[in-house]
């Protein structure tokens, strides 16, 4: 530390120390903020995954009940209902896909592999996981797979 002051003789030792202490404080704060941004709250992620899973579960059951409900005999209504059925079936399918993704994410949480891209092994950005808690891929891989 003594040598550092030799290099900056224009700053008096007292003033230099205050300056460096202040700088250190700012750096510490920045580091803490960085850590908070980078850190993924696993408990929080798990809670939102489980919440979404139970939402999907009840939605799927509602869809199943709707699909199994007896149809009206009116031809016109029947046509409309048939279209509705297709939408319901698609909803059911995407819901089932999402449930599978969430289950896989919960398994990765259990295995300590949560937040690691299943394709390239890189860390998945925390912002991405906050938006998509069940994301199995990092940004780059998701783009690569989609394209
Ligand atoms: Zn990746």
Automatic annotation (TrEMBL):
Zinc fingers classed as dksA C4-type: ranges: 117-141
MF terms in GO: zinc ion binding
Gene3D superfamilies: DksA, coiled-coil domain
Domain DnaK suppressor protein-like N-terminal: residue ranges: 47-109
Domain of life: Bacteria
Zinc listed as a keyword: yes
PROSITE patterns found in the cross-reference section: ZF_DKSA_2
Database matches in SUPFAM superfamilies: Glucocorticoid receptor-like (DNA-binding domain)
Keywords, in A-Z order: Metal-binding, Zinc, Zinc-finger
Domain (Zinc finger DksA/TraR C4-type): residue spans on this chain: 112-143
Cross-referenced Pfam families: DksA-like_N (PF21173), zf-dskA_traR (PF01258)
Record's protein name: Regulatory protein, yteA family
Source organism of the structure: Shimia thalassica
